[in-house]
Specification:
single chain, 210 residues, mainly alpha, Endonuclease Iii, domain 2, 2 domains, 12 helices
Length: 210
């Protein structure tokens, strides 16, 4: 999880690689000089943001998250548990997501070395470990890998925003197959996290940050 302040230590190398390997990506990069995928810090908060962001727009997720941040003072696992499912629902999230948040809070409260344990795992192992938690699927685990662990080659193939961005930028708005997407993305290795972030940025003015 090496970084310079909140910037992944590999970011500049990623930009150089993407500039050299893909003209479409090169044009996207030109639109966002100096911007980058930002480290999101606290693992509980990072994973909680992914739960809030499941299957809703970036704008809607930001609204719910801001409400939770405002109402749960000093947002932490213990304070989230104390606030409870009923009150979390009042912040705009569903009952199921509220239950997931409390479950995640209990996980971090009861696993003192959770972050260290996750850092020591490879990408696949992190996904497998996090998917044991209720409410966490591959997408949420991949967001955690990108924004909290700063893994450089994460490619969430099932992400609708990513697929839309690839459709617009590479396929004239036609829906590409998984194989076509995989073929396009192979040139971006080993920096698909950066490519994913840039593609999100190309279609949404709100910067995605989990």
């Amino acid at each position: 999880m090496k970084r310079i302040k909140d910037q992944p230590i590999w970011w500049n190398k990623a930009i150089t690689h993407l500039n050299n390997c893909d003209n479409t990506m090169k044009n996207i990069i030109k639109l966002y000089p100096g911007e980058y995928l930002k480290y999101r810090g606290d693992p509980f908060l990072s994973l909680s943001r992914t739960i809030i962001g499941q299957q809703i727009s970036v704008k809607a997720a930001a609204s719910v998250w801001n409400s939770i941040n405002k109402n749960v003072k000093n947002l932490s696992p213990q304070n989230t548990i104390n606030y409870g499912v009923k009150n979390l629902k009042k912040c705009g999230t569903s009952e199921r997501k509220a239950e997931y948040l409390v479950g995640i809070a209990n996980y971090f409260l009861n696993t003192s070395n959770a972050l260290k344990e996750l850092q020591d795992l490879n990408d696949k192992e992190v996904v497998e470990e996090l998917c044991k938690l209720r409410g966490i699927g591959p997408w949420s685990a991949e967001m955690f890998l990108m924004f909290c662990l700063l893994r450089q080659d994460i490619f969430p193939l099932g992400d609708l925003g990513l697929r839309k961005a690839i459709s617009i930028n590479y396929f004239n708005k036609k829906d590409p197959s998984d194989t076509e997407i995989t073929n396009i993305s192979s040139a971006w290795k080993p920096y698909r996290s950066a490519a994913t972030w840039l593609l999100w940025k190309s279609i949404d003015p709100i910067t995605i940050a989990y």
